[in-house]
Amino acid sequence: PLYAHLYRDPVPGFLIKTRAPMTAEWVERMNKRTCHTLKQNRNQGDLFANDSIPDTLWDILSFWVSNHLGMLESTVALTSELIAGEQGKELPRGAGMTEIVVAGKQVPRMAFTFDVWKLQRLIDEMKMLVQNGKSSAVDEFC
User: Fold this and answer.
1) What is the DSSP letter of 51?
2) What backbone phi and psi angles, to 5 degrees, belong to 99?
3) Where are the alpha helices (DSSP H) in 1-112?
4) Are residues 7 and 21 in contact, defined by beta-carbon separation less than 8 angstroms?
5) Least confident piece of the model among 1-5, 80-84, 110-114
6) Going by C-beta distance under 8 Å and a sequence separation of 6 or more, which residues neighbour residue 113?
7) Handedness of CA 69, 74, 77, 79 (dihedral sign)
8) pLDDT at 99 over 70
9) Mean pLDDT value of segment 130-140
10) Per residue in 20-59, pLDDT tens?
11) CA 10 from centre of chain
């Protein structure tokens, strides 16, 4: 939501860049394929000491997981069923309907196959961190 709904919009994007430059840098880094290669902030030293996730980010991650994990699990299951039945064919954008938690309520949502690709990208990045000897960052996240 930070990138798609706020960062790309001129007004909130400007506010993020001027009032929260470290958040802006994080948003930019998360949208690059090589997000595991953290660059150093010249004015403030290392971005995250010892590759640890800051306490302030855990609340955001916890909120996201509590609202999206069930939907992702359902989407993976629906997409897997679709792949089994459609071998060799291009996948459609949606694999069926699922539900997501919004403001404490379950609401219907399309199970987008693209979400499975994004999840696989995250898993691949985490595997790369482990292969590069940075398993402490993965352990902390998991």
Assistant:
1) G
2) -130, 155
3) 10-19, 21-30, 55-85
4) no
5) 1-5
6) 75, 79, 82, 91, 92, 93, 94, 95
7) negative
8) yes
9) 71
10) 999 999 888 888 755 444 444 444 555 556 666 778 888 8
11) 22
Report, as an integer, the average pLDDT of 52-77.
Answer: 86
Nearest C-alpha neighbor of 20 from the set 37, 7, 36: 7
CB 26 within 8 A of CB 6: no
Angle of CA points 12, 93, 36, to nearest 5°: 55
Least confident of 6-10, 39-43, 77-81: 39-43
Tell me which residue has tokens 């997981």.
65
Query: What percent of the chain has pLDDT above 70?
Result: 80
SS3 of residue 34 by DSSP: coil
**What torsion do the CA atoms of 99, 8, 142, 40 make, to the nearest 10 degrees?**
180
Residue 95 CB coordination number (10 Å): 24
Mean pLDDT estimate for the chain: 81
Type of residue at 127: K
Paired tokens of 59 = 């609340």
Instruction: Give the whole-angstrom CA distance, residue 141 versus residue 130.
Output: 12
